[in-house]
Each structure stands twice: as structure tokens, then as C-alpha cells.
Design brief:
The structure is a single chain. This protein is an all-alpha fold. It is built from four helices and no strands. The termini are far apart.
């Protein structure tokens, strides 16, 4: 950059303090001024970096929670399958239990018949 353009960028107060500098010194001075001007931008970037790091940590925790939830759901799915299998067995047993009142009546009839036959046999034994 030619010297005249460089001097146009620097305000008049700064020009007075920079007049005795060579081009390398001027460039260093400009670099320092730009760095100072950009300091708020760098601070914002640092702040954004820390927020992104925080969000990344939260995202990692969410992913871990999601994995644990999948494991729990798989476990529950397995348990539900076991309950469904046992339900089938229980339902079959309940079907046979529903026949119990009918069977009770038949058993009472058989008990009466057996008691009657026992009495008849005992009567025949006494008659002999």
C-alpha cells in the first residue's frame, strides 16, 4: 500500500505520532489498532465458543438419555411379550375354570349315586 493511502486511513492526531516511523513500524501500528478495534468481536466469538461447548455437552447428555430410554423401551417390550405369552396360558386355564360350576353339579350327583350304591351294598352284605 502506498504511503499516501496509509496516511489517509490514520486520523490527523495519530499521524503526528506516527510521522517518524518507517513502513514496517506503521504496519505494526495499524495491526495493533485493528486488533484493538476487533477486540469486542473476538470477545463475542469467545463467548459464542463457550456457549457452543455448553450446548455440545447438553447434546451429549441428551444422546445418552436417548440411548438409556431405548434400552428401557427394549426391556419393557420384552416384558410385555412375556406377559402376553403368560396371558395366553392363563386364558386357557380360565376357560377350564368356567366349567367348574357345571362339574360341581355332576360331582354332587356322582357322590349321591356312590352313597346310594354304598348303602345298597351294605344292605346286601347284611342280608347275607
Amino acid at each position: 500500500m502506498p504511503m499516501s493511502k496509509t496516511w489517509g486511513i490514520i486520523d490527523s492526531n495519530a499521524r503526528k505520532g506516527l510521522q517518524g516511523m518507517d513502513e514496517k513500524q506503521l504496519l505494526n501500528a495499524i495491526r495493533l489498532m485493528i486488533r484493538e478495534e476487533n477486540k469486542p468481536i473476538y470477545e463475542q466469538l469467545d463467548s459464542m465458543d463457550s456457549r457452543f461447548d455448553s450446548m455440545s455437552g447438553r447434546l451429549d447428555r441428551i444422546e445418552e438419555d436417548s440411548r438409556q430410554t431405548r434400552v428401557l423401551v427394549e426391556h419393557l417390550d420384552h416384558n410385555i411379550s412375556l406377559v402376553a405369552e403368560q396371558y395366553t396360558d392363563i386364558a386357557k386355564k380360565l376357560e377350564s375354570i368356567s366349567d367348574v360350576p357345571e362339574l360341581r353339579g355332576r360331582v354332587r350327583t356322582l357322590e349321591r349315586v356312590v352313597a346310594s350304591h354304598t348303602d345298597q351294598i351294605n344292605g346286601l352284605k347284611k342280608a347275607q
